[in-house]
Amino acid sequence: ETGVTQTPRHLVMGMTNKKSLKCEQHLGHNAMYWYKQSAKKPLELMFVYNFKEQTENNSVPSRFSPECPNSSHLFLHLHTLQPEDSALYLCASSQEKGAGETQYFGPGTRLLVL
Amino acid sequence: AQKITQTQPGMFVQEKEAVTLDCTYDTSDQSYGLFWYKQPSSGEMIFLIYQGSYDEQNATEGRYSLNFQKARKSANLVISASQLGDSAMYFCAMREGWGGGADGLTFGKGTHLIIQP
To answer: How many angstroms separate the Cα of B78 from the Cα of each of B11, B17, B62, B71?
Structure first.
């Protein structure tokens, strides 16, 4: 399944680095999401975009900065991260917002902050 | 309080047996959706099955079925005739409301299913 792609798949960065995660969906969807999956914790919603507009920021620290230039692309810009930010970052998309809309996920980016 | 509870951290099942993975949920909304995802060691979350709160029939998708008991707020996943490739983490998730409020999924902690030959 290549409906949602994410790059890079793995990333190691220092606390002073700046990097960006990229997500692209080929499903013609209008809503995109960032989730964080830390070890031994449930997935946590970070951001929601619908038709390029941010509709949800789930109290995420400002060192994470999302960008959605169009409905097909979503970025997560990272700067001055902490070691506890090491996690699997998953991007998802759905046709619309709403309880009945299935979200389809990308393969994730495994981030390690040293 | 947890919105999604998966009480089985890990399960070992013999190949070809049926498996039931438990999920209970907590919501005051009348409209909500329930989802199950599979996450192999590669990390990708694979959508398996969806049940809407107003659906009267239990959802089925191939070997997967969802045992939806609304009054008990239970949405167990049943995998028939398990295969070695079913070994993975399984997550129950819920999405509340129809367009209003938060639109992300709320996930449980997952069940690690291991199928033994």
So the answer is: 13, 11, 11, 19
